[in-house]
Amino acid sequence: MKSYATEPLSANADTLSERQSEIAELVRATGFAGIDELADRFSVSTQTIRKDVNGLCDKGLLRRVHGGVQLASVGNLEYRMRKVLRYSAKQQIAAAVADTIPNGSSVSISIGTTPEAVVSAMLSHTNLKIQTNNLNIAMIGNTAGSFDVSIPGGLIRRGDGDIIGPAAVAFFESYKADFGIFGVAAVDADGGLLDFYEEEVAARQAILRNCRTSILVLDHMKFERNAHVRGGHIADVDHVFCDKAPPPGIASALAEAGVTVTICGKESN
């Protein structure tokens, strides 16, 4: 049985322990989990699990119900909350991607908490030209004195800080970036890339069409999640960065398509 850290992964008060992150993703995938079930799964006491889930409920990720916990809301989670899920995996992925981006590159970057982590990991680079439709990413990039950061005009989506829709698509179509970096909400069993909104897919596909090297960043839980808007296939990209190996069927499709796969977590050691 895998062991899990009991302390937060960073000093950030919103950051979750690894076990809390796994609990949140499990409930996100299934909709409900019982306290006894979770205690058995993680080989800890029910008291320990209650402490974990109480912390998740305090952060607004989950809601206590009789016998267990369920999602606090239906659909996608608030951006601030998504940032703390799979925190360690996102940092490992971000560091590996940053190592592949040369100074002076032009980089188109999609919405998402993992792409945001990549930008933070690139702040020691010089003379990057960043194009993004996410204000969080833009503001992080703007802290690097030598970066040029461009964003589209349009309506800002509340909570996420995104600009999506036709303006974002036209924005990415106006560049030819050295690298396109994007995430997805989920990956279907057949390798289809899934998101929650058609506009998210359209912007992501515009980045893919207008970059010389496409990079998909995702943690392994994306292979276990679901979203309902299809757009593209995982084998369409040039490079996949993930914290664990993809499921066998998807791994075979990636190998057949010649997609480079980099495993950034402990499995890579």
TrEMBL record:
Q: Which Gene3D superfamilies match?
A: 4-hydroxybutyrate coenzyme like domains, Winged helix-like DNA-binding domain superfamily/Winged helix DNA-binding domain
Q: Which SMART domains match?
A: DeoRC, HTH_DEOR
Claim: GTP-binding is one of the keywords in the record: no
An example Pfam family from this entry, by short name, is DeoRC
The HTH deoR-type domain is annotated at 16-71
Q: Name one GO molecular function term.
A: DNA binding
Instruction: Quote the PROSITE patterns the UniProt record gives.
Output: HTH_DEOR_1, HTH_DEOR_2
InterPro entries registered for this protein in UniProt: Carb_Metab_HTH_regulators, DeoR-like_C, DeoR_HTH, NagB/RpiA_transferase-like, Tscrpt_reg_HTH_DeoR_CS, WH-like_DNA-bd_sf, WH_DNA-bd_sf
Tell me the keywords, alphabetical order: DNA-binding, Repressor, Transcription, Transcription regulation
What's this protein's name?
A: DeoR/GlpR transcriptional regulator
Organism of derivation: Hwanghaeella grinnelliae
Organismal lineage: Bacteria, Pseudomonadati, Pseudomonadota, Alphaproteobacteria, Rhodospirillales
